[in-house]
Structure formats: C-alpha cells, structure tokens
Amino acid sequence: MTSRLLLIPLALLLAAAAGAASAKGCLKGAAVGAVAGHVAGHHAIIGAVAGCAVGHHLANKPKPTTTASRPPNAPALALAPTPTPALSSKT
User: Fold this and answer.
1) pTM value surpassing 0.70
2) Which residues of the chain have a pLDDT value below 50?
3) Backbone angles phi, psi at 16, to 5 degrees
C-alpha cells in the first residue's frame, strides 16, 4: 500500500516536469513496456515508464544515410542471369 502512495507523487512530479514534451515514440513504447512489465511480475507502471523512455530515445535517433544513391527515375538494379556451367561428362 505504501508503495502505491509513493508512486502517486512521483507520477505527478514526472507529469509536471514533462511540460510540452514531444510524445514521439513514447506512447508505443509505454504500451509495450506496460504489457511486458505486467507479464514480468505485475510491474506495469515501471514497464510503462521504461518503455516510454526507450521508445522516445529510439524515435529520436538519426536515420542512417546511404552513401550510394541512384537518380529518382533510375530503375532498380537488375541482376544479369548467371550462366549455367556446362556439364562435364567423363566418358
């Protein structure tokens, strides 16, 4: 019971500190974390907080850029057919 009473002020503090933060990735991460936390011993709130943090971090990672680029109208690379090796017969 006392742990729940401690979680309420902590949740209010976190909500007040968030302000106008972007929720990019947080909602999906919180949902997954809550389910995982619930399955792992009824820790849904802790799982939701951790999932929100991880989801937000992953959503804000810079996207990798490719070094080789092709023109927008260029067709995709077509693979040339590989020649079949001649069958050798030992007669």
Assistant:
1) no
2) none
3) -70, -35
